[in-house]
UniProtKB/TrEMBL annotation:
Signal peptide: none annotated. It comes from Achromobacter seleniivolatilans. The lineage of its organism: Bacteria, Pseudomonadati, Pseudomonadota, Betaproteobacteria, Burkholderiales. Coiled coil: none annotated. CDD domains: PBP1_SBP-like. This is ABC transporter substrate-binding protein.
Length: 394
């Protein structure tokens, strides 16, 4: 009896399922990931019951200070010496790509809700990685296309000078040109810029109808605030935030943000489910969650369900289960993880309300359009992911 019982026992390594988050806790992305993402993960673990297959679920959180080398070193340490089973988010595209390579080398699971670069599921895809919430292709395909179709034909970009900004500008440029628009130029700024004056003067001088913001977090907030101070919008130019979070709108204020179009994978006030979960989150942090924070909750829950179903925390078995199980929760309906690691789900085009339209705190968006996942994300036919090519050839 004993050998049979042992053979059937759940194969949980070191008797703990240990998850990690490598986040920006104090920098330009602290408000859009940071404590909010950590809180969302804690909520998911608690809602799952705190254990899986009878074993405790632990969560480790560290600040990478927006440095790729720190993120990679921490991931290596966690996988090698802390027995971390899965890293469930890495804030920022450059740190994320560094961790992606460590996870590939260690054959360990990594899931991303904070970073945007589409390379995670394109040329740099891995059998052990999932891009869960959004990516640069989906943002550009939704926001840029809608803006061009509404008459915003000429563009100038303000671009964060690292992997995320570069891929977002490239994706948006492709969409603008494909829909009959033109790109007049771009100005690249360092991550965490405090002074956007010279970049905005270049944008103003370009005479472009649309100033496309290929940046995120505090950089986007500062750029929009500065543009209002410079009077760019009064002069007829319009801002298009290619990645805007509800936290950013809250920081900018409706007076300055009203009329902006943006793309999100989640909004707290969509339906009864989103409102119920978001109220629980709000009770903890006194702010509403954004899509990356909601995505972190959903992805942690999905991972734990996959461990439960697989009967083990062994990475290959868990990833197979994650890709076979649909995702149905407040974040996604009939979401699915493709062979390239892309979690496909609906994306939403919103317009920021006028101050007079907002009825209560955090009532900031009105829905313009819903894009089904197969339209919102890069089709597999365009992917350069080697995993897709292997699948297609089989």
């Amino acid at each position: 009896m004993a050998p049979a019982a042992l053979a059937q026992a759940p194969a949980i390594s070191d008797d703990v399922v240990r998850l990690g988050l490598i986040l920006d806790m104090s920098g330009v992305y602290a408000d859009v990931t940071g404590k909010g993402s950590a809180t969302a993960a804690e909520m998911a673990i608690a809602d799952f019951g705190g254990t899986v297959l009878g074993k405790k679920v632990d969560l480790l959180v560290v600040d990478h200070q927006n440095k790729a080398d720190i993120a990679a070193a921490k991931a290596r340490e966690w996988y090698d010496t802390k027995q971390v089973d899965a890293i469930m988010d890495v804030a920022g595209s450059a740190p994320a790509l560094a961790v992606l390579e460590v996870a590939r080398d260690k054959k360990k699971i990594v899931v991303f809700s904070g970073p945007g670069t589409e390379r995670i599921t394109n040329d740099l895809c891995s059998p052990y990685s999932v891009h869960y919430t959004y990516d640069t292709w989906s943002l550009a395909n939704t926001t840029a296309r809608a803006t061009v179709e509404k008459g915003g034909k000429s563009w100038y970009f303000l671009t964060a000078d690292y992997a995320f900004g570069h891929t977002l500008q490239a994706s948006a440029t492709e969409v603008v040109k494909a829909n009959g628009g033109t790109v007049l130029g771009a100005a690249r700024h360092p991550l965490g810029s405090s002074d956007f004056a010279s970049y905005l003067l270049q944008a103003q001088a370009s005479k472009a109808q649309i100033i496309g913001l290929a940046n995120a977090g505090g950089d986007t907030v500062n750029a929009i605030k500065a543009a209002n101070e410079f009077g760019l919008t009064k002069g007829g130019q319009k801002m298009a935030g290619l990645l805007l979070y509800i936290n950013d709108i809250h920081a900018i204020g409706l007076e300055a943000a009203a009329g902006l179009t943006l793309t999100e994978g989640f909004y707290w006030d969509m339906n009864d489910q989103t409102r119920a979960w978001s109220q629980r989150y709000y009770d903890k942090l006194k702010k509403m969650p954004n899509m990356s924070q909601a995505g972190t909750y959903s992805s942690v829950m999905h991972y734990l369900k996959a461990v439960q179903a697989a009967g083990t925390d062994e990475p290959t078995a868990v990833m197979k289960q994650m890709k076979s199980m649909p995702i149905n929760d407040f974040f996604a309906t009939n979401g699915r993880i493709r062979e390239d690691g892309r979690m496909v789900h609906d994306m939403y085009l919103f317009e920021v309300k006028q101050p007079s339209e907002s009825k209560r705190p955090w009532d900031y968006y009105k829905l313009v359009a819903t894009l089904p996942g197969d339209q919102a994300f890069m089709p597999l036919s365009k992917s350069t992911c080697p995993l897709v090519k292997k699948t297609a050839s089989n």
